[in-house]
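User: Could you write out the 3D structure of this protein bound to coenzyme A? I've included everything you need below.
Assistant: Certainly. Input first, then the structure.
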Amino acid sequence: MRFDAKGEGEAEISIVIASGFRGMGVGAAVLKQAQKLAATLGYKRLFARVKVENIPSRRAFEKAGFQLIDQDHVACLYEAELTGVCPAG
Ligand SMILES: CC(C)(COP(=O)(O)OP(=O)(O)OC[C@H]1O[C@@H](n2cnc3c(N)ncnc32)[C@H](O)[C@@H]1OP(=O)(O)O)[C@@H](O)C(=O)NCCC(=O)NCCS
């Protein structure tokens, strides 16, 4: 999982789970914890671009509470507002 700082208080999040551990809920759990970590780091908003056909990734982001805010024929744009997220620790 990584954050790439973009604008003021914003980061793009991306995630890769080792192939032998996919489909077990790890991705969604990591994405939930990532929101707490991002809040701790001072970010106010996370977003992610996911290919339309990447159903496991889209499901994982949706299960973790990310909102679909835009979509074209190539990619979906998800965001999580971190206001009100309790920081990690
Ligand atoms: C995308 C990824 C991070 C998801 O992590 P994960 O641990 O497999 O995800 P989870 O187990 O938490 O949840 C995946 C969801 O997708 C579903 N899913 C898994 N494989 C699927 C498939 N082949 N087709 C449809 N749905 C699928 C799961 O059933 C689950 O949904 P559900 O709880 O409603 O059943 C992981 O698959 C991965 O690393 N993929 C390669 C890298 C990638 O695509 N990263 C995202 C780009 S930002």
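The chain has one domain: 2-81.
User: Perfect, thank you.
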